[in-house]
Specification:
Length: 125
């Protein structure tokens, strides 16, 4: 991702999923060194993430109405999942962005980007 001139807003859901994925990769590596990456590398990435939060490069807006996000997610699921096969977290990420009135949606997942576009979010290329 290119360096942003202003802070990037990330939801607490994105933060959790990213941290969880790093820990899972460290677990995989501990079981099979051909998969994932070391706990030391995961910890370095977690430290870099925290430094970006503390340094103001990443901002986590408060999200106090998870019931509204879940309601939006249910609507997205009803409208798009049978045709598009979207996963729960993809639907929750898009619903969170809609709830937060995100100006843009950043993802490296083409499938998730399709849902975001269908939901009328601007997906940053």
């Amino acid at each position: 991702m290119q360096r942003e001139s202003q802070p990037v807003l990330i939801s607490s859901l994105v933060l959790f999923e990213f941290r969880q994925s790093l820990r899972l990769q460290a677990f995989r590596f501990s079981k099979d060194r051909t998969q994932g990456f070391s706990k030391m590398k995961a910890n370095r990435m977690l430290e870099a993430l925290q430094a970006n939060i503390v340094g103001g490069l990443l901002l986590i807006p408060p999200l106090e109405d998870w019931a509204k996000v879940h309601s939006l997610a249910e609507g997205l699921s009803l409208q798009y999942t049978i045709q598009g096969g979207y996963r729960s977290f993809d639907v929750l990420h898009v619903a969170t962005a809609i709830h937060l009135k995100a100006g843009r949606f950043i993802t490296f997942d083409k499938h998730q980007a399709g849902l975001a576009k269908a939901a009328n979010l601007y997906v940053q290329p």
